[in-house]
Structures are given as structure tokens and as C-alpha cells.
Amino acid sequence: MSTESPVFYYADNHREFRYCPHCAAPLQKIRDGARWRPACTRCGFVQYLNPPLAATILLTRGDRVLLGRRTIEPRRGYWTLPGGYVELGESAEEAVVREAREELGVDVRIERLLGLHSGAPSAVAVALYEGTIVRGEPRPLDEVDAVGFFGPDELPEVAFWSTHWALELWQLSRRDRELRR
Ligand SMILES: [Zn+2]
Question: Where are the alpha helices (DSSP H) in the chain?
């Protein structure tokens, strides 16, 4: 696994506005609890910088895990789990099922939530599910140009700190299962 140090990737919505997106007045910083936030003195808009939620899924075949190689920034060319951002009005489970279909052309069934990764150095909160492919053979369709199943000793360079975390959880749960046998 890569030993490269993690980088803090800001989402687009983590840039502070200088002008109000509603009324176009210049924003001023106001103190709100422990944070300073850009705020509009004309219409009352306040910009909150919150982590968006992404949902990802561990899909395994025997002793190997499914990864896809990204064709989009950030971290184009690096490998990650199937998944993506949760849309407003959609559950994290619905999002990960949709993303697996869009990216890889497979229908997946969710087995359980393995964990939630949040906080620095990640600017995104990531829900990690474990699941099973119930229909289709994974192939690169959207936002990935290669897919593969990788064993614990042959993992490629992964894209995000949360991908490292997810693969560590996967290995822990593998060892757990072996111990219980
Ligand atoms: Zn305004």
C-alpha cells in the first residue's frame, strides 16, 4: 500500500465566498461560536463550510477487493472504491447503489455499514458499506478507465486518505473472519 502522505482535498464548496451568492453584496466575516464565517449584511446569508457526504462500497471476490482507476480530478489515475457524493434527497445507500451502476454497470446489494470516516485531513465524510454484486460483471463506464480485484499484497496506489482507511477496515474484518473460523 502507498506510504504517500495524505493531502487535504477541498471540495468546491470549501472556498469562501467573497460576494453573496443570493444578492451579490460583498460578504463580511462574522463570529459564530468558535468560527468566523462569511456573511451578508444585506440579506442575512451565512456561508457554512461543512463536509459533503460520500458513500463507498467494498465489493470482494474471494480474498480480493474491487477498485477502479479514476479519470477525474482530484487524484486522476489513482485507485479508489466504487462510490461518490450523496445527492440531496437521496440516502447514502441509494447513492452507493446508483454509483456502482453508473461507474461499473453492476447491481449491488448492501450487506452492512462498516464505518464512517470524517475529520482532518479529509474534507469529505465517507460512509463505507460492505456489499455483494448481484448482477453484472464490473467494467469501467463512468469516471473510471480500469477496474480490478486486488489482494491485500497487490494493492495499487490509492486516491484518498479515506481509501487507505477503508482498505485497512477491510483487512481487519478479513482477519476477524479468519479468527472466528
Ligand atoms: Zn446577500
Answer: 92-104, 161-180
